[in-house]
Amino acid sequence: MGEPGPAPLAVVRRKRDTAFLTEARVAELIRPRPFGRERLIAERARLTQEMGPLDLWEGYRDFTAADDSFKRSSNSVRTSHKYGRVYVQLARRYRPWTVVEIGTAFGVSGMYWLAGLQANRRGRLVTFDPNRQWQEIARANLAAVSPRFTAVADTFEAGFEAAKIRFGRPGIAFIDGIHVGDIVKAQAEQLIGRLASPWILVFDDIRFNDGMYRCFREIEQAAGVVSAVEIESRVGILEVDPATGAPS
């Protein structure tokens, strides 16, 4: 027998025929294509990386090794350009009224989401990160792409209520903060419990550790989840429609 073929770029598991995330649509999302502000984002990301490693938020000490430098540069925590293009296309095709980002970091992933919102000429990014030094850098990066954002210098859990996010219109949530399964699951459940319209939840680094992937597959079984996508074992996407009730 011959060598096994390469793993598919994306795996789609649909529970409802009416789900937005069809195999054809996912194939379109992951097809590389240029977009407005692409060069600007690349240049902002390059300049941010040149700042070098900066201190992590103090709250991360519980999740780092004792010998950790406790500093990170932009490239060590940012979304790659390949996945950034996916986020631009997802925002353009789904046309969310709100994108909630948990984990602003230096604002690179947020710039991609904003590029999609700006192309739509509607929608707003609400992004959370408690690292105030990083937030100042992120704000400058985001503002270079679009004014359609609110940057909250706090954790999602602490700043969530005050942000007054509207869950009655379609939106996207990008969960990319602390990569600990229990924390990510709690954040996703907090979001899903408030949805009053269809939303898409995007998870970065779903194979970061066993707990992260287990968390993603458990959330996939939540009531209202109508489709799930895995892109290159890195990005997980769940489509949630609260009107569908419990999954079949």
UniProtKB/TrEMBL annotation:
It holds the Pfam family Methyltransf_24. InterPro entries: SAM-dependent_MTases_sf. This is Methyltransferase. The lineage of its organism: Bacteria, Pseudomonadati, Pseudomonadota, Alphaproteobacteria, Rhodospirillales.
